[in-house]
Design goal:
The chain has 699 residues and is an alpha/beta fold. Helices cover 50% and strands 12% of the residues. The chain has 4 domains: 256 residues, 2-enoyl-CoA Hydratase, Chain A, domain 1, CATH 3.90.226; 181 residues, Rossmann fold (3-Layer(aba) Sandwich); 97 residues, Orthogonal Bundle (N-(1-d-carboxylethyl)-l-norvaline Dehydrogenase, domain 2), CATH 1.10.1040.50; 98 residues, N-(1-d-carboxylethyl)-l-norvaline Dehydrogenase, domain 2 (Orthogonal Bundle), CATH 1.10.1040.50. The strands form 4 sheets. The protein has an 8-stranded mixed sheet, sandwiched between helices. A 6-stranded mixed sheet has the order 1-2-3-4-6-9, with helices on both faces. α1 packs parallel to α2 and α23 packs across α24. The two termini are 36 Å apart. It binds nicotinamide-adenine-dinucleotide. The site of nicotinamide-adenine-dinucleotide has 24 residues, from α12, α13 and α15.
């Protein structure tokens, strides 16, 4: 069956694409459109309509062609032929016209769309730029700024907004085909010109060097280190100042630079990694789901409030339980304040805000949780308090309710063991701020039932989170791997570096925030308090934490007390280097018998990133994570790891596992085996000359 059907109906040539599920631009679709356009040039049609069957207009490239040698005809060739048609071409858009799909529409002479349709050029999210004339035709139609906003954000816009920036000519009410045909007939009746967007010139006040420089600088901050957004600016600048053919050449060259870059490889890896992470290897496809129509949350602190918002936002009613009326009022107050901020920013209307707030009901009585389908506990990080809470939940919750803990470190199996229904207990580990961060680590216990896991994966999607499955260990995937990362940051500090150098190395690498600044943000006292409960042996060598402890004892708890490893400007909250901290570092180094030395950036970077990778390999060999790419998803969505590096395990593959393994062996000699024990899996793969990705595929 052909994916494109062409027929002349009442004088209009109708090109119908039908390539389910999303009319992706496969080779067959490109050939089909090309042949139909060719046929239409010499038949008795007077105008041409391109329309799609199914749920959407062409929603983008065919991802199965990614990374393969190009198949003819190329999309640039096809869109050129559409634009050069000697009869008017009308694209009729419903669903989403994305990427190459929108480029097909932009090369058509007119575009009509249903009001519900969306259009976008999301290539930047894969480290690419629109490569079939999108960077040249969009600014010619929409102007420089609107085109740049569309292409550098990658976010789709609705048909009405697209009409406002000239990307859509008419919104169709009712049947799209009828509307498009009527539009085409009107073009013929009024002898409307063939409007080739490639022949327009860019008319925009923003077409000047100052504007482009400013835009580049903004992007350099927003999309740190990413080349694709910067290249999009160069393409649009070319569109504004050059003939179409010259602009297309600029686009082609920069597109090739993007597609062969390690950044785009990393971002395409993440695209697939995110989809893979949603799959649970040992769960039958037909695992039944439990229905989640209401949720209870225990603890309305930093996490509980944010977790409640996730459910309220999608219309699932929440009962929030706190220890006292005061604590409850405080918790509800924080939620209300967060919504008010969103409303102020224009993200929510007053009415939507009230609607969300009405979804959250407070209580201090466990009996009120008797009928909820899912409970998420977010009380203090203390195993005894958590056990008490789960004992109560076990006595009040209905049979079949899922009982989840948001613990960061505690043993989910121990928590499950206090209930008579360990099969219903699971970890749902949200990240702070819980209403914003996309990651949800789902921690399956020893006895967690299949349908509880499957329902948890599903509910993550419902509340628009990215789920990653983990097994029980101290810190699960993400927080466990952080330990060597933070340890190395602290060791580098005492051995000779400074907070600023350590953070800037990681920030230049692309991390949203360096490890020392993160410690200040989270509060240095958290680790201090946790260590108070440990034996000396459990604490490990003093040089790993003596600086932190001294700072806490000086009252420097981090950002919340106005000073930690840095001081903070009270007005701007900017971090400022502080000589008092370096005095502490030097004193502590002396006390530990360490003679401080200069540590170069390469060593700083390798010690921190290889520490993370080595622990990631251990997480894999122990089966804590299902696959290497799941770890990448955890780090990108939960820890501010740069997407253009593809996550720690993808980064490891790009560096080479042999290099990493050998460096870690060297570190073991230099800094001690107590810190550096290479993972057995890393050693094996290094010796076999394999990558984590290859190993992941073999599992
Ligand atoms: P928090 O101190 O801000 O809030 C805890 C809340 O629980 C308080 O409001 C307290 O009144 C309430 N509470 C305590 N005991 C209770 C009980 N028996 N019944 C009902 N309510 C009770 O703590 P948080 O930062 O929101 O952390 C909560 C949990 O989430 C912890 O397990 C923590 O490890 C985990 N977590 C925290 C973060 C984070 O960044 N803060 C991130 C992920 C997970």
């Amino acid at each position: 069956m052909s994916v494109v059907n062409y027929q002349v109906e009442n004088g209009i040539g109708i090109i119908r694409a039908n390539n389910p599920p999303v009319n992706a631009l496969s080779q067959a679709l490109r050939i089909g459109i090309q042949e139909a356009i060719k046929a239409a040039q010499s038949d008795d049609s007077e105008a041409i309509v391109i329309i799609c069957e199914g749920r959407t207009f062409i929603a983008g490239a065919d991802i199965t062609e990614f990374g393969k040698p190009p198949l003819s005809p190329s999309l640039p060739q096809v869109v050129e032929e559409i634009e050069q048609s000697n009869k008017p071409v009308v694209a009729a858009i419903h669903g989403t016209a994305l990427g190459g799909g929108l480029e097909v529409a932009l090369s058509s002479h007119y575009r009509v769309a249903l009001a519900s349709a969306k259009v976008g050029l999301p290539e930047v999210k894969l480290g690419l730029l629109p490569g079939a004339g999108g960077t040249q035709r969009t600014p010619r139609l929409a102007g420089v700024k609107a085109a740049l906003d569309l292409m550098t954000s990658g976010n789709p816009i609705g048909a009405k907004n697209a009409q406002a920036i000239n990307l859509v000519d008419e919104i169709i009410d009712g049947d799209l085909l009828e509307g498009a045909v009527a539009f085409a007939k009107n073009l013929i009746a009024t002898k409307a010109p063939i409007k080739r967007s490639g022949e327009l010139s860019v008319a925009d006040d923003n077409n000047n060097a100052e504007f482009f420089d400013g835009y580049r600088a903004t992007l350099a901050r927003r999309a740190k280190g990413q080349i694709a957004p910067q290249h999009i600016v160069s393409c649009v600048e070319a569109a504004a100042n050059k003939a179409l053919s010259d602009g297309l050449e600029v686009e082609r060259n920069l597109f090739m630079e993007c597609i062969t870059s390690s950044q785009s490889a990393a971002m395409r890896h993440m695209f697939f990694a995110e989809r893979e992470a949603a799959k649970v290897k040992d769960l039958p496809k037909d695992t039944p789901l439990r229905e989640i129509k209401s949720v209870g949350i225990i603890g309305g602190g930093t996490m509980g409030g944010g977790i409640a918002m996730n459910f309220a936002n999608v219309g699932i009613p929440v009962k929030l339980l706190e220890i006292s009326d005061d604590a409850l009022a405080r918790g509800l107050g924080i939620i209300e304040k967060n919504y008010a901020i969103s409303a102020k920013k224009g993200k929510l209307t007053e009415e939507q805000m009230q609607q969300c707030m009405s979804m959250v009901e407070g209580t201090t009585n466990y009996e009120d949780l008797g009928d909820v389908d899912l409970v998420i506990e977010a009380v203090f990080e203390n195993i005894n308090i958590k056990k008490e809470v789960f004992t109560k939940l076990d006595s009040v919750c209905k049979q079949g309710a899922i009982l989840a803990t948001n613990t960061s470190y505690q043993d989910v199996d121990q928590i499950a063991a206090v209930t008579k229904r360990p099969q219903d207990v699971i970890g749902l580990h949200f990240f702070s701020p819980a209403n914003v961060m996309k990651l949800l680590e789902i921690v399956r216990g020893e006895k967690t039932a299949d349908d509880v896991i499957a329902t948890s994966m599903k509910i993550a999607k419902t509340i628009r989170k990215v789920p990653v499955l983990a097994r029980v260990c101290y810190g699960f995937i993400g927080n466990r791997m952080l330990q060597p990362y933070f340890r190395e940051a602290q060791l580098c500090l005492i051995e000779g570096s400074t907070p600023e150098k350590i953070d800037s190395v990681m920030e230049n690498f692309g991390m949203a925030m360096g490890p020392i600044a993160v410690s200040d943000l989270a509060g240095i006292d958290i680790g201090y308090k946790a260590r108070e409960t440990l034996t000396d042996e459990e604490k490990g060598p003093a040089k790993c934490f003596c600086v932190s402890d001294s700072l806490v004892e000086m009252g420097r708890l981090g950002q919340k007390s106005g000073a930690g490893f840095y001081s903070y400007d009270p007005q701007t909250r900017q971090r400022v280097n502080d000589a008092a901290v370096m005095k502490v570092v030097e004193e502590q180094a002396q006390a530990q018998g360490i003679s401080r030395r200069d540590i170069n950036d390469e060593e700083l970077l390798n010690r921190m990133t290889f520490g993370l990778i080595n622990e990631g390999a251990k997480v894999l060999e122990e089966g804590i994570a299902q696959r290497p790419s799941d770890i990448d998803v955890v780090y990108i969505y939960g820890y501010g790891y740069p997407v253009s590096r593809g996550g720690p395990m993808h980064y490891a593959d790009s560096v080479g596992l042999k290099t990493i393994y050998e460096t870690i062996c060297q570190y073991a000699k230099e800094f001690g085996e107590e810190f550096w024990q290479p993972s057995a899996l890393l050693k094996q793969l290094a010796e076999e000359g394999k990558t984590f990705a290859q190993w992941g595929q073999e599992q």
